[in-house]
Amino acid sequence: MVEANDSADDDVLIDVRSLCKRFGTVVACEDVSLQLRRGEIHALIGPNGAGKSTLIRQISGQLRQDSGQILLAGKDVSKLSMTERARAGLAQSFQVSMVIPEFDVLQNVMLAVQGKSGSTFRFFAKVSQQEPLLDKARDFLAQVDLLDRSSIMAAELSHGERRKLELCMALAMEPKAFILDEPMAGVGAAESRAMTRLLASLKLKAPVLLVEHDMDAVFALADRLSVLVYGRIIASGTVAQIRQNPDVREAYMGDLEDGDACASGLEDSDASMSDQRDIDASMSDSNDSDDETRA
Q1: What is the per-residue pLDDT across 44-77, written as a single tens digit (0 to 9) for each?
Q2: Could you tell me how far CA 65 lies from the centroid of its own chain?
Q3: How far is the C-alpha of 247 from the C-alpha of 114, rounded, in Å?
Q4: 124 C-beta neighbours (distance < 10 Å), count
């Protein structure tokens, strides 16, 4: 078992090395290597059926790879279960999305705080009286702008608010790295901008490996991207590098003549750069950003 990152690079939090996975004769993941570095959002994109879900499930521990290694903060977690990887510091949106509808927002976050401390849910009645636990849960809620909704039952939240609660519960685990699988799925236009700002701030806590089909959000948020096609990563780089990569354009856009959502995303660099400037401005001046309106 590898105990330390062979490259001795402390900035690498997730290090995927030559991962392979087959289902019979179908190659779902072929010699995939990628790194998630401190302080970044690394987006994984690709056409439907490219193998993104299979790769994410292997990294998270839901699915065992046939060969290859997965390192978390320099430690080999390749043989650890999903729960063990979570305890080691890997927060996953599809794991923490198990919001309990019958509990209020604050209680859901308190459970996540308990999980970080190693307590079990059966002790909830006792620990709910502990002020330090309450204070910590409220602090996490404030970070995602849900503090004023803390007494609302989770079942009564809007879809966008529920997604925020899921991210809050991931934050409460105080992880070394996040894996977020389509965190903006189902979020309406009115909530999209706020969610984008929230995701942009998340990398200040821990780096994010992001799978998201909203290409406008991906290009606005990602520091680096890796493009997966038929189980292989064909390119990795910055947004600008990926936009200009001919292999990406050919594989990702295919022979489309009139363009689609993906093609539009690859072409519309000005809009994404504008979005990124807006995000940067909002993070440096959050009070003004919430009041900003556009015609």
Answers
A1: 998 888 999 899 999 999 999 999 999 999 999 9
A2: 21
A3: 47
A4: 15
